[in-house]
């Protein structure tokens, strides 16, 4: 597996998920992946660690507003404003958990018989910043939705 | 109409599955945020069906949904349990089925798929 395969497949799946499953059709179908030295996440950021034949940490980050909009579109049935706000962070974690889980079997390492363990998500707030390890690698994919950015990251 | 226990560590997933179950005419009689609590809730309510997330936080020696399935099936061999999982947890699904789970449902959950799996599971 090359370094950005996981982020490419995850970006494609997130776009598909938001478009088809959440009905957020304003999602831009193009994305760009860059090698970066540092990532400043948005209001809500959730991280999932990978271990086994694929190692590293995958992240997803969005603004509070987008997190709330995602809840509105995720929930089956009606939801009041207070509940919606209380579930916004958790839903970002669930979104990453679902989309990452959906693409894992498609990665070349797994297709070749490799195994990977996915941790439970860890969520952070307040625009956390992460700096690349001296000998590490760090990649960032940015997807546009209306005037918002959805940040997907992979670092190891 | 089935009486259902919904076990998932994410409140939003419990709410979503619960809303779908209600729409399909079923009753959510209890919820559990981890495997250990799902065992306690099962014993208390004896539901017709359980939806069980595979990956949940450990508590009191019950590490995940698979451990909960084992414990429930040991005491209640006729228990009907549907595992809820994402595609990447294929190995865990196999373990859960070997432990006695009746079926599994992939995330993201669609209401028509939920209905289909419930019908298959309850017969």
Task: Tell me what you see in this structure.
The complex is a heterodimer of chains A (156) and B (123). Chain A has a single domain (5-155), classed as CheC-like (Chemotaxis protein chec), CATH 3.40.1550. Helices cover 36% and strands 35% of the residues of chain A. Chain A has four helices and nine strands, in the order αββββαααβββββ. In chain A, the strands form two sheets. In chain A, strands 1, 3, 4, 5, 6, 8 and 9 form a seven-stranded antiparallel β-sheet that branches. In chain A, strands 2-7 form a two-stranded antiparallel ribbon. In chain A, a hairpin with a 3-residue loop joins β3 and β4. The model of chain A has no long low-confidence stretch (mean pLDDT 94). By secondary structure, chain B is an alpha/beta fold. Helix content of chain B is 46%, strand content 20%. Chain B has helices at 11-23, 35-45, 65-75, 90-98, 111-122; strands at 3-7, 27-32, 49-53, 81-85, 103-106. Chain B has a five-stranded parallel β-sheet, sandwiched between helices. In chain B, α3 packs parallel to α4. The longest helix of chain B has 13 residues, at 11-23. Chain B is globular and about 35 Å long. The interface between A and B is medium-sized, with 26 and 23 residues.
């Amino acid at each position: 597996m090359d370094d950005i395969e996981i982020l490419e497949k995850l970006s494609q799946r997130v776009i598909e998920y938001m478009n088809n499953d959440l009905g957020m059709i304003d999602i831009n179908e193009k994305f760009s992946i860059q090698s970066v030295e540092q990532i400043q996440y948005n209001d809500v950021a959730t991280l999932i660690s990978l271990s086994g034949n694929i190692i590293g940490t995958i992240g997803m980050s969005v603004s509070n507003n987008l997190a709330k909009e995602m809840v509105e579109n995720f929930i089956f049935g009606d939801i009041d404003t207070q509940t919606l706000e209380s579930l916004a962070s958790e839903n970002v974690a669930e979104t990453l958990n679902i989309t990452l889980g959906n693409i894992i079997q498609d990665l070349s390492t797994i297709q070749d018989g490799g195994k990977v363990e996915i941790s439970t998500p860890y969520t952070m707030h307040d625009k956390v910043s992460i700096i690349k390890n001296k000998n590490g690698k760090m990649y960032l994919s940015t997807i546009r939705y209306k005037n918002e950015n959805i940040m997907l990251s992979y670092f190891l | 109409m089935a009486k259902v226990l919904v076990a998932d560590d994410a409140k939003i997933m419990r709410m979503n599955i619960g809303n779908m179950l209600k729409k399909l005419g079923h009753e959510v009689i209890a919820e559990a945020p981890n495997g250990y609590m799902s065992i306690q809730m099962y014993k208390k309510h004896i539901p017709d069906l359980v939806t069980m997330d595979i990956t949940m936080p450990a508590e009191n020696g019950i590490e995940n949904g698979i451990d909960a399935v084992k414990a429930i099936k040991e005491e209640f061999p006729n228990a009907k349990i549907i595992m809820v999982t994402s595609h990447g947890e294929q190995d865990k699904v196999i373990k859960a089925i070997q432990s006695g789970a009746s079926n599994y449902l992939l995330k993201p959950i669609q209401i028509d798929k939920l209905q289909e799996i419930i019908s298959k599971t309850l017969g």
